[in-house]
Write a structure and sequence with these properties.
Elements (H helix, E strand, L loop, with lengths): L1 E6 L3 H12 L4 E7 L2 H11 L3 E5 L7 H8 L7 E6 L5 H8 L5 E3 L4 H13 L6 H11 L16 H11 L4 H8 L3 H15 L4 H10 L5
Length: about 210
C-alpha cells in the first residue's frame, strides 16, 4: 500500500484528489494539510511514502515545506502541484530534492500513475516537461562538473546523456540495442556513483553542470 499525504490550501481540491486516490486498491490517503507548516507536522506524524505538495499556500509555501521535509531522515517522495507548465518555483523545488511536478489539471489516470511512478523511483514524472522546465530556468553559467562524474564508464556516460534528455528506459534500450533490464542496471549504477536519488535529480545534475548536449 502506497501511503499518500495531500497538501493544498483548497479543501475542495483535496477532497477530489482524496476520493480519486481512495478508489485505488494500492493507494491510501493517510493525512492532509492546508499549508506548509501543517504539512511538515503531518508528514512527521504519519511518515507517508509520497506527498502531493501545492506550491503556493498561506502561512508557509510548498517550496519551504518541501525543503524542510527533505532534510528529515528517510524522507518521502514529494511531487509538486502547480497551475503553470513552466513554473520557476517548481524548478527550485526539484533542485532542492522534490521528485517531480504535476499540473493541477492533469488527467486522473496520469495523476494516479505519477504517484506510483515516483514511489517506485524507476522513472521521471513528465520527463520531457522536467527537461523543458530546466531548459527554461537553468542558470546561465553551469557549475564545474564534480569529480564523481569521472567515475562513470564510457557506456554509463552514454546512458546518462540519454536519460538527461528525458528518454525512458524503453527508449534508451531501443536506441542502444540493449534490454530494458540492462538499461535499468546502468541507471541504478549511475545514480549510485553520482549520489543522486532518482532520475529527476539526474536531469537537474545534467543541467546544473552543462552536461545536456
Amino acid at each position: 500500500m502506497i501511503r499518500v499525504v495531500l497538501v493544498d490550501d483548497q479543501a475542495l481540491f483535496r477532497a477530489g484528489i482524496r476520493m480519486l486516490v481512495a478508489s485505488q486498491p494500492d493507494l491510501e490517503v493517510v493525512g492532509e494539510a492546508g499549508n506548509g507548516q501543517e504539512a511538515i507536522d503531518v508528514v512527521r506524524a504519519v511518515r507517508p511514502d509520497v506527498v502531493m505538495m501545492d506550491i503556493r499556500m498561506p502561512v508557509m509555501d510548498g517550496l519551504t515545506a518541501t525543503a524542510r521535509i527533505l532534510e528529515d531522515a528517510d524522507p518521502p517522495r514529494v511531487v509538486m502541484l502547480t497551475t503553470f507548465d513552466l513554473d520557476e518555483a517548481a524548478a527550485r523545488a526539484i533542485r532542492r530534492g522534490a521528485s517531480g511536478f504535476l499540473l493541477k489539471d492533469a488527467d486522473p489516470e496520469f495523476l494516479l500513475a505519477a504517484i506510483r511512478t515516483v514511489h517506485s523511483g524507476s522513472s521521471v514524472i513528465a520527463a520531457s516537461a522536467t527537461r523543458e522546465l530546466f531548459a527554461h530556468f537553468s542558470a546561465p553559467e553551469p557549475t564545474p562538473v564534480p569529480a564523481r562524474y569521472g567515475d562513470l564508464t564510457d557506456r554509463e556516460r552514454e546512458i546518462f546523456a540519454l536519460a538527461a534528455r528525458g528518454l525512458s528506459n524503453s527508449e534508451i534500450a531501443a536506441r542502444e540495442f540493449l534490454s530494458e533490464a540492462t538499461v535499468k542496471t546502468h541507471i541504478s549504477r549511475i545514480l549510485t556513483k553520482l549520489v543522486l536519488r532518482d532520475r529527476v535529480q539526474l536531469v537537474v545534475f545534467a543541467f546544473e553542470h552543462g552536461l545536456t548536449a
